[in-house]
Amino acid sequence: MTNGGFVGRQRILVAVLVVASALAVAAGCGKAEFNYVANADEKTYFRVPSAWSEVDGAPVDDVLLAGLLQAKPDSDVAQQAKTLMWSAAYDASEDPTAEHVFSPFPTTEPVAYSMVFHLPQMIQGALSFDILRDFIFPVTTSSRMRAEQNGQGLSGFELLYDQVLTPSEGVRGIRVVYNYELRLETIHTFDLTAYMNNDSSTVYLLLIRCTARCYRERAVELDGIATSFTVRSQA
User: Fold this and answer.
1) Are the beta carbons of 110 and 214 closer than 8 angstroms?
2) pLDDT (0 to 100) of residue 100
3) Is residue 226 scored above 60 in pLDDT?
4) Residue 34 has pLDDT above 90, yes or no
5) What pLDDT is attached to residue 22?
6) Contact at 8 Å (CB) between 181 and 158?
7) φ, ψ at 182 (rounded to 5°)
8) Cβ density class 39-76: b for 16+ within 10 Å, e for less
9) Is the pLDDT of residue 230 over 70?
């Protein structure tokens, strides 16, 4: 065998080994475990499992804005407010939709919704920890009493967790976890983390929701999502 032939075979062998090594590395890396959801302008981010599907959060936006502003989704007030907000929604369901966030029916797979909202000037400065607690459903005693008096009360309320959070200078908020019984006599767990800035002009929230059984079975996973929610001061 000539020296040139030996060298040639060596080069082929090296090339094969390089390709095999690259394939092994690629196979070892696989798909990322998490999707990192960020809004750089708002200095806000959180993570969700990569298997979850991103969905259009507009239906949830409409419900929240209607509650905050007492305005119809197609009204000019609501349309203007949408320019002051950012949202993202993810669903672990095989049939993903943001409507699972407020569905009265059992959601056996978790769904997560996040929002940043710069409050219109007419309601700026009105935020409080109790308003944050009641942002999605009535949680405080006074809010639940009002809902019952108005015929809008829900049954099966259980407060599971309530903590004040001060993650960084210029940002403060709460994390509250609670149960409500919705249709088909199914208990659902709502895990809400909500922050406001120092002048109470901006609210930041992350809501995770699924049935109580689902929440217990996936507690570590869902707590990891909630605690990943980070808001940095704009100062």
Assistant:
1) yes
2) 96
3) yes
4) yes
5) 44
6) no
7) -105, -155
8) beeebbbbbbbeebbebebebbbbbbbeebbebeeeee
9) yes
Q: pTM score > 0.85 for this model? A: no
C-alpha to C-alpha distance for 173 and 132, rounded to whole angstroms: 8
Q: What span, in angstroms and rounded, lies between the C-alpha atoms of 226 and 211? A: 16
> What residues contact 167, with CB distance under 8 A and at least 6 apart?
173, 195, 230, 231
* pLDDT band, residue 82 (cuts 50/70/90): confident
